[in-house]
């Protein structure tokens, strides 16, 4: 909703609020950048939507510097879909299609990213060996066990620091206009397996989010995780893992503040199986 000067007001998605106890607020660029969380207010901040990305909206109007004003942990991509984005400890890392980890300039823009000011409400060891499937199952169990600590949080922010025998990763190549849909781009993705050189494993961090099914289309329903090694030389979108042991931290919220880039249509959530199948294919899950 806008006034006669074109300034955008906050628009709250009442359907998601009713369906999933998730409060989605849409803002234009200036509203998103100008927003400052008050004391006790905790939200996940997102640039655009997975639906817009699926349709080839790879030009954003939010810089990484502006993104970092809203969160210190998260993931996404960068302008022209030039690789995977990892946000960890208040820094941005770009993993290009060749698997190289870069520190992009704060002036670089993002067409899709999700961040939060991470405050762990749950902190537990992850003992023993875990596949990626076992990791997500364990997170679900821990979240249920700590419902009192997390509250009615439909969104979980996840951080796992540990050592990995191996991690299956992927990144995608930079695109040029006219942009193809994301489903076509992932046909040319680069997937690889990072394998530990010794039994100690690769020290690194899994970061990401779990969103409820009702948010599908606005976000990736379920888990979306990226990886960054402790030495900042290995990273990417995670499609598999072999965790030797680590520490699980969770943060939860009911609030999603979404920036709608100029000229980009950010559709409502779409819980159809057709959309779920497309998202599973492009996310490698």
How are the SSEs ordered, and which strands pair?
Elements: E1 11-13, H1 14-20, E2 23-27, H2 29-34, E3 44-47, H3 50-54, E4 62-63, H4 64-68, E5 73-77, E6 84-88, E7 91-95, E8 101-102, E9 109-110, E10 113-116, E11 122-126, E12 130-131, H5 132-145, H6 147-150, E13 155-171, H7 182-185, E14 190-195, E15 202-211, E16 222-229, E17 235-253, E18 255-259, H8 273-283
Parallel strand pairs: 2-18, 3-18
Antiparallel strand pairs: 1-2, 3-10, 4-9, 5-6, 5-10, 6-7, 7-8, 11-17, 12-17, 13-14, 13-15, 13-17, 15-16, 16-17
What is the strand arrangement across the widest sheet?
Answer: 1-2-18-3-10-5-6-7-8
Distance between the termini: 36 Å
Query: What is the tally of helical segments?
Result: 8
The biggest sheet amounts to: 9 strands, mixed
Question: What labels would you give this structure?
Answer:
single chain, alpha+beta, 60s Ribosomal Protein L30, Chain: A, 2 domains, 7-stranded antiparallel β-sheet
């Amino acid at each position: 909703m806008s006034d006669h000067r074109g300034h955008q007001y906050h628009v709250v998605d009442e359907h998601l609020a009713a369906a999933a106890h998730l409060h989605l607020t849409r803002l234009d660029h200036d509203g998103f950048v100008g927003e400052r969380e008050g004391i006790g207010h905790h939200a996940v901040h997102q640039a655009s939507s997975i639906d817009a990305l699926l349709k080839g909206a790879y030009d954003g109007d939010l810089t990484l510097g502006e993104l970092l004003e809203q969160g210190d942990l998260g993931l996404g991509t960068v302008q022209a879909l030039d690789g995977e984005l990892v946000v960890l400890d208040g820094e941005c890392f770009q993993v290009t299609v060749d698997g190289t980890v870069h520190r992009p300039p704060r002036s670089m823009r993002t067409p899709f990213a999700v961040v939060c000011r991470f405050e762990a409400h749950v902190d537990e060891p992850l003992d023993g060996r875990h596949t990626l499937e076992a990791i997500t199952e364990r997170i679900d169990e821990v979240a249920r066990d700590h419902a009192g600590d997390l509250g009615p949080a439909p969104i979980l922010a996840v951080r796992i620091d540990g050592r990995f025998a191996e991690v299956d990763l992927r990144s995608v190549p930079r695109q040029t206009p006219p942009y193809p849909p994301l489903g076509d781009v992932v046909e040319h993705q680069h997937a690889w397996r990072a394998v530990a050189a010794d039994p100690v494993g690769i020290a690194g961090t899994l970061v990401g989010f779990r969103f409820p099914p009702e948010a599908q289309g606005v976000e990736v329903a379920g888990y979306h995780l990226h990886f960054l090694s402790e030495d900042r030389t290995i990273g990417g979108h995670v499609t598999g893992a072999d965790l030797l042991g680590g520490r699980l931290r969770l943060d939860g919220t009911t609030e999603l503040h979404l920036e709608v880039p100029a000229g980009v249509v950010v559709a409502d959530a779409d819980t159809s199986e057709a959309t779920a199948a497309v998202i599973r294919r492009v996310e490698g899950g």
